Amino acid sequence: MVDYVQILNKTKLFAGINLTDIENMLNCFRFKVKSYRKGDYIYQAGEQIKSLAVLCEGSLFMQKDGYWGNRIIINHITAGEVFGGAYALSQSEPLPYDVVAGESSAVLFFDAARILTGCPEGCACHTALIRNLVCSLSQRNGLLMQKIDFMSQRTIRDKLTTYLTAQYSRTGSEEFTIPLNRQQLADYLSVDRSALSNELSKMRDEGMLEFSRNHFVLLRNQHSSS
């Protein structure tokens, strides 16, 4: 319990809430922790979820498989992030995608209804949690809007340059490691893996970037060919 309280204390959801209050709130919210192996499903598309979830350890993927086996990665979830919040709180729409463990992971679940009802005493920590939750949902919406920006680009190169520019803006560095392998990046950008690899090789040959696996270095004062 103490380990998870300390982990949650570092998340945006529990920002401004001390360790003792977090522990008390977990008991109030009827929490449970579940462990998953790589490839395990946390949620499957079509489920009606009632729990707010926080990833404590590992990484997850929101993904959707098409009828003919094509896969789209909607988002990547890292430790400390909240997921499934909008569907758990509305309790009206089924989840439209799968949530799958990208590696060994631990997820903490809360009863969403208990969070919405609030404390009879109107305690400050519960108010802070709801405020943090609203901010978290807003940030998640922003990430999905960014994904739409990637997807709206016409060519593979445009998708790649928009995505890599976003990573540069996020990290503040021209050298960074992305959380996706080559197939996952192709699924995320909804392009063919071989075509993606070919385009990356062309960009490297043109002096736009260097890369090794999922580690990238962007090079300045270079221009892509038309």
Q: Structural class from helices and strands?
A: alpha+beta
- What is the CATH fold-level name of the largest domain? Jelly Rolls
Silhouette: elongated
The side-by-side strand order for the widest beta sheet comes to: 1-8-3-6
The secondary-structure element order is HHEEEEEEHEEHHHEHHEE
The total of helices stands at 8
- Give the mean pLDDT: 87
Low-pLDDT stretches are 222-226
Fraction in beta strands? 15-25%
Whole-number radius of gyration? 20 Å
Number of domains as seen in the coordinates: 2
Described by its quaternary structure, the protein is: single chain
CATH class of the largest domain: Mainly Beta
Which architecture of the largest domain per CATH?
A: Sandwich
Give descriptors for this structure.
single chain; 226 residues; alpha+beta; Jelly Rolls; Arc Repressor Mutant, subunit A; four-stranded antiparallel beta sheet; 8 helices
Structure description:
With 226 residues, the chain is of the alpha+beta class. The protein has 2 domains: 2-151, Jelly Rolls; 155-218, Winged helix-like DNA-binding domain superfamily/Winged helix DNA-binding domain (Arc Repressor Mutant, subunit A, Orthogonal Bundle). It is built from 8 helices and 11 strands. It has a 4-stranded antiparallel β-sheet with strand order 1-8-3-6. A 4-stranded antiparallel β-sheet has the order 2-7-4-5. It has a 3-stranded antiparallel β-sheet with strand order 9-11-10. Helix 5 (124-152) packs antiparallel against helix 6 (156-171).
